[in-house]
User: Which sequence fits this backbone?
């Protein structure tokens, strides 16, 4: 009962500052969207529901199962949880049992009876080691700081999970872009090789000049060089995707065009304030701020007396069979109060350090919000302007295709030199390649917006082993 009363008295005061969420350091709406709350939060959309491409889903599943960086994030959560368990144990007394046996001999010239004395002392009991009565909340604040650090680490794990999903999706899109560009370049190589064959025959028959032949050869060589460059880029991209997935996967070209890869829905950005509860990195930064406030409370408590208890209850006797006889019970009780009088400014410096670290945590929290706001703003503006670019490039490709056709007709009729055909063919290939690149960037912007809005964060379960 006495321990129960002590537990009730301990920890009744906290000197930590009250947690207050800093004001939002960004505008209350995005430049590319109105100030309207989202009816369907991206955080509620599971990644399987958003990324509907089955091949991409399989890659993401493998990445979540095998990625080493994510494994480290999970292990850091386990580490923080264990550290919290160690700190939490200081809130309750440590009780243990002990059995001590001592046999000693006192020489005759030191004994009171003038003869050597051999004696035994055997003691059995249970007791509590030095246990602090937490009147000023020092131990409780240290526990709160450890808990907040653990929760922050768990939110960092969730943020790493979302980042891995987005990176895998973006790498998959980049691979699909390169496959499509390679296919275009290979078709161009085939066409130009056939044109080269025809022109060589014409030169043999004297129907065309050697200059035209060299220009056709240049076109064919440029296309072949482009294929080699794209194949090199594809190999590097495949290696990057394999590292993300963390396992050997089949990344052979699937034959899909970028226009066939779609996301399930158009995302609503909502308000910047909604990011505070949807982005795991922001939630983690707020937990860090809570931990910093708790550490201030622990540093303030160091200025007050520290009260601790040590005690034991048991039985003692000179003989083993006397431990449980009547009158053999023994006990000790040793309360202690300590207060440093002079410590060279150590406690004040510790408090100053805790307050500075709290201020740093506030700045990091604000920086995280600013970065999140920019992520969303960049993704929104990219979606808007890349859609315009894709539309314009589709029109440009149509015009360049017609230009190349007309240039070929003019050359065949003798109205133009082959240099005009050469320029038209080069510009057409460039337009085709640029359209594919921009279309991939448009899809990547959708992935970026999903990630920036904390997409699927509510479907990633937090660690529930300790709360």
Assistant:
């Amino acid at each position: 009962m006495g321990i129960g009363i002590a537990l009730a008295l301990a920890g009744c005061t906290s000197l930590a500052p009250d947690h207050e969420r800093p004001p939002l350091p960004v505008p209350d709406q995005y430049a590319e969207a109105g100030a309207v709350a989202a009816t369907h939060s991206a955080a509620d959309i599971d990644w399987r529901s958003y990324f509907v491409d089955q091949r991409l889903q399989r890659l993401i599943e493998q990445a979540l199962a095998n990625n080493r960086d994510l494994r480290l994030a999970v292990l850091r959560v386990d580490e923080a949880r264990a550290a919290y368990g160690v700190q939490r144990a200081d809130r309750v007394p440590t009780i243990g049992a002990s059995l001590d046996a001592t046999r000693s001999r006192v020489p005759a010239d030191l004994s009171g009876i003038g003869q050597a004395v051999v004696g035994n002392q055997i003691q059995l009991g249970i007791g509590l080691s030095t246990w602090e009565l937490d009147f000023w909340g020092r131990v409780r604040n240290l526990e709160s700081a450890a808990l907040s650090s653990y929760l922050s680490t768990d939110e960092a794990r969730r943020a790493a999970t979302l980042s891995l999903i987005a990176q895998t999706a973006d790498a998959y899109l980049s691979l699909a872009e390169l496959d499509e560009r390679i296919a275009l370049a290979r078709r161009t190589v085939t066409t130009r090789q056939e044109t080269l064959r025809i022109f060589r025959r014409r030169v043999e028959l004297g129907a065309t000049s050697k200059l035209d032949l060299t220009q056709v050869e240049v076109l064919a060589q440029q296309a072949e060089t482009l294929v080699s460059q794209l194949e090199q880029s594809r190999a590097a991209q495949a290696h990057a995707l394999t590292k993300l997935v963390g396992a050997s996967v089949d990344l052979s070209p699937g034959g899909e065009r970028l226009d066939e890869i779609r996301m399930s829905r158009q995302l609503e950005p909502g308000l910047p304030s909604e990011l505070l509860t949807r982005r795991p990195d922001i939630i983690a930064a707020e937990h860090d701020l809570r931990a910093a406030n708790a550490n201030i409370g622990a540093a303030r408590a160091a200025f007050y007396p520290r009260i601790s208890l040590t005690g034991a209850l048991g039985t003692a006797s000179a003989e083993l069979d006397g431990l449980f006889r009547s009158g053999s019970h023994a006990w000790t009780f040793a309360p202690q109060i300590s207060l440093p009088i002079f410590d060279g400014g150590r406690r004040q410096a510790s408090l100053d350090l805790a307050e500075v670290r709290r201020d740093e945590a506030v700045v990091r929290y604000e920086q995280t919000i600013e970065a999140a706001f920019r992520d969303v703003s960049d993704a929104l503006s990219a979606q808007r302007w890349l859609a315009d670019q894709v539309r314009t490039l589709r029109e440009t490709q149509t015009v360049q295709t017609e230009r190349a056709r007309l240039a070929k007709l003019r050359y065949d009729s003798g109205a133009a030199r082959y240099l005009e055909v050469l320029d038209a063919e080069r510009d057409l290939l460039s337009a085709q390649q640029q359209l594919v690149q921009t279309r991939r960037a448009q899809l990547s912007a959708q992935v970026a917006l999903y990630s920036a809005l904390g997409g699927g964060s509510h479907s990633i379960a937090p660690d529930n082993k300790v709360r």
